[in-house]
Amino acid sequence: MMITKQLLGEFLHEVENTRKLLKAIPDDALEYKPSENSWTTAQLASHIAEVYNWYYNTIEDNVFDMGAYKYDKGDITKASNILSKFEENIKKAQHSLENLKEERLYDNWSMVLGDKELMAPMPRIQVIRGFLMNHLYHHRGEMIVYLRATGNKVPGLYGPTYEESLAFSETQSV
């Protein structure tokens, strides 16, 4: 039970950070795209929200068939819609983590697209940490760059932002 409690603790802490980041996205930044090969801000935010929907399949099934998976991004023309989808998905993800049996962490899990293997079998705990959690952290980092590139304020996730640190330094040197 110890590892599942630790995973749930990290999940709950990081959900708050993800929520802060998604709440910082203004509607006027949703169409921003840093390069031809990049997603728009709306697409990236929607993907971040959607990864939380993958927890159920990852925890409950030993094989995740992306070919059978139905991605419902909903209306991504407003940041509030993406945030609502996120809130809906985290409830299901949290429920799955709360009910995860410790022994299932070591079952092999794989991802396929029909009959094509996308991810080789690996222990479920490795998938939860890498494919779910670390994957989200990676995309949150991208979102921070998107927000800064569009001149928007970035929330501090692990302490003050650079800008907040500068403001604090200036008040301390007076």
Explain this structure to me?
- With 174 residues, this protein is mostly helical.
- Helices cover 56% and strands 10% of the residues.
- Strands 1-2-3 form a 3-stranded mixed beta sheet.
- Strand 1, helix 4 (79-98) and strand 2 form a beta-alpha-beta unit.
- The longest helix has 26 residues, at 124-149.
- The protein is globular and about 55 Å long.
- The N and C termini lie far apart (51 Å).
- The mean pLDDT is 94.
Concise account of the structure shown:
By secondary structure, this protein is mostly helical. It is built from 6 helices and 3 strands, in the order H-H-H-E-H-E-E-H-H. It has a 3-stranded mixed β-sheet with strand order 1-2-3.
The low-confidence parts are none
β-strand percent reads: 5-15%
Please count the helical segments.
6
Shape: globular
Biggest sheet: strands, sense, closure? 3 strands, mixed
How many angstroms separate the termini? 51 Å
Structural class: mainly alpha
Succession of helices and strands:
HHHEHEEHH
Q: Indicate the mean pLDDT.
A: 94
- Estimate the helix proportion, in percent: 55-70%
Say how many strands there are. Answer: 3
* Main sheet: strand order: 1-2-3
Radius of gyration: 18 Å
Distinctive features:
mainly alpha; 10% strand; globular
Task: Give the SSE map.
Layout: H1 2-23, H2 41-51, H3 54-60, E1 63-65, H4 79-98, E2 108-113, E3 116-123, H5 124-149, H6 162-172
Parallel strand pairs: 1-2
Antiparallel strand pairs: 2-3
Helix pairs in contact: 1-4, 1-5, 2-4, 2-5, 3-4, 3-5
